[in-house]
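This part of the workshop introduces the protein records we will be handling. An example says more than a description, so a record of this kind follows:
>
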Amino acid sequence: STITGSYIKYSLGVAQAIRSINPCVPLIWGGWHPSLRPEQTLENEYVDKVIVGQGEQAFCDAVESIKDGEKIDNIIAYEYVDKSNFSISNLNLIKNIEKYIIPYISPRTISLYTSQGCPYGCRFCAVNSVYGRNYSGWSVEDVVHLIDYSIKKYAINGVHFD
């Protein structure tokens, strides 16, 4: 995932450094900016491919394809047909999101990412631009079970919900 806004220059600096070390490495960008402006992002010389929307599985699939010598499209997204038929709401959400656990913030705090997307269409929010109005999340029971387990196993005293 790349940083957007005024800090994008740092992402470009990292991409430039990678390209100077190995010009053959494909540079794949993802995150908010590439998802909202894929064609604009691809105009930069340090961007070879763009992942639109959820990137976790798409990135793994792209890496496997490249490793196997297969060609991948410049814009990577599930159910992406072509630029004229592209709709962000057609993208698939990650199945089994609970397997993507973010590491703890401090020795006694765990960070939980228990959902993705949002069913609402708030005008001020960019979430729908990436996920459409799709939503996927853990069950309450699974969240409670993980917290209970973490308290018993790791003696946590805090939970950070992302």
